Amino acid sequence: MLKINVQQSTERFMAKLRGGEYEVPTISNDEVVYSETKERRDTEAVEAFLSSELSNKIIELK
Amino acid sequence: MEFDKKHQFLIREFGEDVISQRYATWLNEIQKIVNCLGGGDFFYIDEDNVALAVLDYFTDVIRLKPFHHIKHINVQKIYGYSMFWLLKNKPVQTVAAVPDSLRYINERTVLFMFVPKMLAEIGLHPNTAAQSEVFVNFLNLLYYNLRYRQSNSQSLELMVDAFISGYRLPH
């Protein structure tokens, strides 16, 4: 195995870090203010669900 | 803390010395371990993967500290989070078909890196630990877990904490 010179390797790493070469990995995120936009809708969805057939299926689950 | 997209926040928070020292320490330890295991002909060390493990580790820690209102994290967290990010980034890469004894080289390397630190933390010499069947069984279980089971920073932190606590319990 090729022996890595730790000091030189560290200097290379720090130069790249200083130079901004390491991007922070991020995920895309569609921001939403849940309380304003979807909370009421979701509550209504739960209420509707409770009177649905699917609700009975869950009740009958063993 | 202002987060940017190029990891400059790490330099502001920890300073260059701490980050470069951690990189050098890990790279140095990994090289020694792989050579000691006789892996010189089968592996190379991906320096960028070591670098990414360092950056991921410090990025994780920086998120942790304000949440828990702590200035410095304890060794349980340091070991647990370090192990996790090294396992994720796999700094040791294969260049040739490896014998069975060298499979799972990254998991093995992580064991070699952190078990000695855990023993040092409780002040137990590795030769003494090696005499203990209980400890050897624990090592087997840990190695098995690293290879086949789900683990994350927090579960590894808990493992380290349980190990240290177990040793320190009055008996």
Short summary of the structure?
The complex is a heterodimer of chains A (62) and B (171). Chain A is mostly helical and 62 residues long.
Please supply descriptive tags for the structure shown above:
heterodimer, A: 62 residues, mainly alpha, 0% strand, B: 171 residues, two-stranded antiparallel ribbon, 8 helices, 4% strand, globular
- Mean pLDDT score of chain A: 87
* Overall 3D shape of chain B: globular
Assembly type:
heterodimer
Shape, principal axes of CA atoms of chain A: elongated
Number of strands of chain B: 2
What would you note in describing this structure?
The complex is a heterodimer of chains A (62) and B (171). With 62 residues, chain A is mainly alpha-helical. Helix content of chain A is 58%, strand content 0%. Chain A starts with 5 loop residues before the first helix and ends with a helix. Chain B is mostly helical and 171 residues long. In chain B, strands 1-2 form a two-stranded antiparallel ribbon. The longest helix of chain B is centred in the middle third of the chain and has 22 residues. Chain B is globular. Chain B starts with 7 loop residues before the first helix and ends with a helix. The mean pLDDT of chain B is 93. The interface between A and B is medium-sized, with 20 and 31 residues.
List the helices and strands and how they pair.
The complex is a heterodimer of chains A (62) and B (171).
Chain A: H1 6-18, H2 34-37, H3 39-50, H4 53-59
Chain B: H1 8-14, H2 16-36, E1 43-45, H3 47-68, H4 75-89, E2 92-94, H5 105-122, H6 126-130, H7 133-148, H8 153-168
Antiparallel strand pairs in B: 1-2
Helix pairs in contact in B: 1-2, 2-3, 2-5, 3-4, 4-5, 4-8, 5-7
